[in-house]
Amino acid sequence: MSYPSSITREQIAGMPPEAFPGRIVVVDRPEQVQDALADLEAAGLAGFDTETRPNFSKKDHHKVCLIQISTDRVCYLFRLNRLGGVPATLKNFLENGRVTKVGLALLDDFHSLRQLTPLEPDGFIDLQKFVLPFGIQEAGLRKIYAILFNRKISKRAQLSNWETDTLTPSMQHYAALDAWACLRIYQHLTAHP
User: 77: which of 9, 21, 101, 172 lies 20 to 30 Å off by Cα?
Assistant: First the structure.
């Protein structure tokens, strides 16, 4: 199958918005972590992303406070700032090569996560490299997704305070959509090479 190599912002602007179709589970208590990970391990394939409170000046430096991991039907939002960092079981999941995890610009995510815990990620696929053999030259999630599905991913919630006491519904949907979109891109390209 042939795909456009690039797309413009103007083309994306006219597309209908995408929405995460599944259930969202906020994981902010240690007793929730194991059940979430058991579900993700059983799936064997998941989309992955992280969020960090934005820096508005050079002296600001915030740590990753959210890891979102999505299957086709559910996205788990692991609130690291509420869990006291990266739980050992979550670290083990990220290092588990038997579960395929699909993300974008993963080196940045790994660098940020290593500021919280020693980490040797395994089982990850970075879409920035994965899409190249399909002729797609774009590196951003929003543009790759638009090329494949003719739908736009809103970035309105990107600059939210991810360390806030409660994640609003719009923040939850934004976070879930980013992780699920990575999974959907991978599934589409592997099914339609």
Answer: 9
* 31-89 pLDDT per residue, tens: 999 999 999 999 999 999 999 876 555 666 668 999 999 999 999 999 999 999 999 99
Residue 72, judged by CB atoms within 10 A of its CB (0-12, 13-18, 19+), counts as: middle
In order of 7, 25, 136, 140, the CA distances from 148 in angstroms are 10, 27, 10, 13
Among 119, 92, 117, which residue's Cα sits nearest to residue 107?
A: 119
The two tokens of residue 47 are: 């989309």
What is the Cα–Cα distance from 14 to 59, expressed in whole angstroms?
38
HEC secondary structure over the chain: CCCCCCCCHHHHHCCCECCCCCEEEEECCHHHHHHHHHHHHHHCEEEEEEEECCCCCCCCCCCEEEEEEECCCEEEEEEHHHHCCCCHHHHHHHCCCCCEEEECCHHHHHHHHHCCCCCCCCCEEEHHHHCHHHCCCCCCHHHHHHHHHCCECCCCCCCCCCCCCCCCHHHHHHHHHHHHHHHHHHHHHHHCC
pTM for this predicted structure? 0.93
